[in-house]
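[job 4471] stage=fold_predict status=RUNNING
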Amino acid sequence: MTVPSITNPDFEVLFDNKPRWNLPDYRRCGFHNLHTTARYAMSLRAPRVLPLRKEIDWTIGERPGVARFLAMPHFSAFVVVRDDRILYEAYAPDFGPDRAHTIMSITKTTLNLMLGRAVADGLVNLDERVGTYLPEIGTGYAEATVKAVADMNVTNDFSEDYSDPYTSAFDMDAACGCRLPPEGQKEETIRSFLCGITGGDLANRTGYALYKSSNTEVLGWIIERASGRALRDWLIEIVEAAGLEGCYHTPCDREGVPVFGASLTARDLARYGLLFARKGEGIDGRRVGDAAFMEETRRNPGPSMPKPLDWFHYSRQTYTDGTWVGHSGYGGQYMFANPDTGTVVVGLGVLENKDASDPEIGAAMMKMAADLVAEK
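[job 4471] inference complete, writing structure tokens
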């Protein structure tokens, strides 16, 4: 007798080619619990913690841009830190300072730290072809330079248009353990998926950044291959240098390769952001990233973002306007850090519209964060 089973409800695709956890009705719960939803995951924790002491400036919450964010239904958390002080923090009623929240593509900024170290140590050349480091990679990346991949400046057949329910990004989610592959299709690993991306002329002639999460996974693979060190070990160094209090939760593929979509508390994301405010210097003299590389990241004239985000550009796995560095995450998260002021702004939220995207709201929130981190 065969004992029957059913599809895990969290991964069942119901509408718009999305698993249940990513549908508008379930997304808020999904984003607040993605670290326990992913099929494969690991958690990393630091032995020593960066203490944060409160020195609240209540006027921050009274600013129109901040007040607007705090009043929005998608709001989860908001934290402003400078050095080791919490200048402001607020949480939604269904969230709190001890809760982990997915930060989605903010995790891409870990590659700026890793790549900076790899370049400084002579392990990776930004002008080298990807195929030199990964001879097995497919035509979508083999002839692209590492720099072009880091700057989101590559044209290939991978798409990340969340208004399209059949975007390639959702296919990659299956390799990352965040959804099930189509019935009868073999589950890929993240790296087998990357090898299947195709392309012809890889030059980007659009005049703006071509955002592809697959680029980040390719860079992580290059760093692991060139250094001979597992990505897990690179991430452990970052977690320990940041002095995170809680866990750094990261999904993996079925082979245990970390993928770049972590979950953190808002305070720990602020602690992580302080690594950029300090140009790669962590607690107790630990150094991750490279200060010179981070300065070059701010100066690097990468491709601009599409409107309404065309007031900054993409550079080495971060956004920057030449002063701050930072990133957003799918569905409504932001982290901005300014090395000139030592200030970090973190905003966590969950957009519950069809595409989990609203460029106008995103642009307004990022402008608010950019203005805050500019102040001393």
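[job 4471] summary: The longest strand covers residues 75-82.
[job 4471] exit 0
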